[in-house]
């Protein structure tokens, strides 16, 4: 479990690629600097796509937690 | 008393659903299509208008000529949907009462959401935009061209890639290719939303010297400095910016409190019922479904909605489900194209670009008016009819 306070949680489970990433990008667009966004994704492609995008966009990947059948990505909007 | 069915929107989905319902139910239903313009527009044609390969007249027809005689057409703007009362409020006053409602209102472009987009960029997602771009391309004598997207979802996911490949060919034919740089700005880490299609088009782009900048979600345009800034913090200088504007659901949906934050209707992916309402269905771009916003999607959804409404009127259990079926062509330039056919469970396996697919698309474009809206799927297109 994450200890960071989550500002917005997105349940993108069942959404095919690139849905979870694009939903995260939308949330980052709408959010404020410092917001922590959590994305739940069951899509395998998210494991590479989401960290790669966060790296390019210079936000912070707080943690990735593998749950039963999906992964939880916790992201902080850094700029 | 006949069932009252109101269809909002006279695009592919609305027109086809109304015609199929009329065919199926005859006098058992009174069907009204409500459309603010009364004109049916074949939007895949914008691409050809922008590149000077077609004129705008070919793309629009009077909706009345596409509807069966017993379907009524109200050229009116719907301003509010009252699902509990079973009514739709019209802009010029009055309410339409319905027993079943089909919402096929499509998407709207909201270019003003991106600073500088209206002043600094061109697009081919509206007839006016495509005509303006055509004039600008005629004046173009060389320089840096960028094609980008300012948010997902947008209509016809292959269109930016398709336009890029066709534009490269256009520049060669004009003899100004060597003075031009063409770059696709992709919101993802590949050229196209679907991975298998990306694997097919990226080598073609490379072979033709087309640049690809990945993870570039257009955030802002500076028209005077001619700079595009991405959400990811990257900046590119450009002489011609061709950017797909952001899309949202229609205001009638948001004003009625039925859409999500972007105005898309929460829709059951199989039954196509709007969540929470047994007698309200959604088709095409208006839904929040995780599938392409395209005419093809609406084309395959309309029969499901028509079948379900007919079953409910007849008191039988509705059986038709939408499997997420989509089929579209992707022009790759040089007189070739490929085809994308997929559903919720099966990603596309596009064939290698060939002339046959280009000809199939050409034929489809010409046969559209006599086939798709009227529910006559061309017999020559077994790939459209077949089920996986």
Describe this structure in words.
The complex is a heterodimer of chains A (79) and B (388). With 79 residues, chain A is of the alpha+beta class. Chain A is built from 2 helices and 4 strands, in the order E-H-E-H-E-E. Chain A has a single domain (8-76), classed as TusA-like domain (Translation Initiation Factor IF3). Chain A is 30% helix and 29% strand. Chain A has a 4-stranded mixed beta sheet, with helices on one face. In chain A, strand 1 (8-11), helix 1 and strand 2 (36-41) form a beta-alpha-beta unit. The N and C termini of chain A lie far apart (25 Å). Chain B is of the alpha/beta class and 388 residues long. Chain B has 2 domains: 3-108 and 248-326, FAD/NAD(P)-binding domain (3-Layer(bba) Sandwich); 111-245, FAD/NAD(P)-binding domain. Chain B has 10 helices and 21 strands. In chain B, helix 1 runs parallel beside helix 8. Chain B is globular. Residues 379-388 of chain B have low confidence and may be disordered. At the A-B interface, helix 1 and helix 2 of A face loops of B.
């Amino acid at each position: 479990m994450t200890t960071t306070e989550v500002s917005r949680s997105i349940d993108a489970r069942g959404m095919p690629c690139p849905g979870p990433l694009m939903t995260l990008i939308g949330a980052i667009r709408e959010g404020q600097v410092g917001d922590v966004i959590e994305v739940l994704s069951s899509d395998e492609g998210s494991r590479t796509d989401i960290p790669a995008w966060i790296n390019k966009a210079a936000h912070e990947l707080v943690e990735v937690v593998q749950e039963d059948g999906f992964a939880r990505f916790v992201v902080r909007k850094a700029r | 008393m006949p069932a009252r069915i109101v269809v909002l929107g006279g695009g592919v989905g609305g027109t086809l659903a109304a015609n199929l319902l009329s065919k199926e139910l005859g006098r058992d239903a009174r069907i009204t299509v409500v459309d603010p313009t009364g004109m049916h527009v074949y939007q895949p044609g914008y691409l050809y208008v922008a590149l000077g390969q077609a004129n705008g007249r070919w793309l629009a027809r009077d909706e009345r000529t596409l509807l069966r005689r017993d379907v009524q057409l109200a050229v009116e703007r719907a301003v509010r949907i009252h699902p509990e009362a079973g009514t739709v409020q019209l802009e010029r006053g009055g309410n339409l009462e319905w027993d079943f409602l089909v919402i096929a209102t499509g998407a709207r472009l909201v270019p003003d959401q991106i600073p500088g987009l209206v002043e600094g960029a061109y697009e081919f997602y509206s007839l006016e935009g495509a005509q303006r771009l055509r004039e600008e391309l005629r004046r173009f004598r060389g320089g840096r061209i960028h094609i980008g997207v300012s948010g997902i979802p947008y209509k016809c996911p292959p269109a930016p890639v398709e336009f890029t490949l066709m534009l490269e060919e256009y520049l060669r034919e004009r003899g100004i290719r060597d003075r031009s740089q063409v770059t696709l700005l992709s919101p993802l880490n590949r050229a196209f939303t679907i991975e298998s299609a990306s694997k097919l088009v990226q080598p073609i782009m490379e072979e033709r010297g087309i640049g690809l900048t990945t993870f570039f979600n257009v955030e802002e345009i500076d028209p005077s400095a001619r700079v595009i800034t991405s959400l990811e913090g990257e900046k590119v200088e450009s002489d011609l910016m061709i950017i797909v504007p952001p899309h949202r659901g229609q205001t009638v949906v948001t004003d009625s409190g039925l859409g999500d934050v972007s105005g898309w209707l929460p829709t059951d992916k199989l039954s196509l019922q709007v969540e929470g309402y047994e007698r309200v269905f959604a088709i095409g771009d208006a839904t929040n479904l995780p599938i392409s916003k395209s005419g093809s999607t609406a084309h395959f959804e309309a029969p499901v909605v028509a079948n379900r409404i007919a079953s409910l009127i007849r008191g039988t259990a509705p059986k038709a489900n939408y499997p997420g079926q989509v089929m579209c062509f992707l022009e790759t330039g040089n007189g070739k194209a490929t085809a994308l056919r997929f559903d919720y469970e099966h990603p596309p396996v596009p064939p290698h670009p060939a002339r046959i697919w280009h000809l199939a698309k050409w034929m489809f474009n010409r046969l559209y008016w006599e086939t798709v809206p009227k529910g006559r799927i061309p017999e020559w297109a077994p790939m459209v009819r077949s089920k996986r």
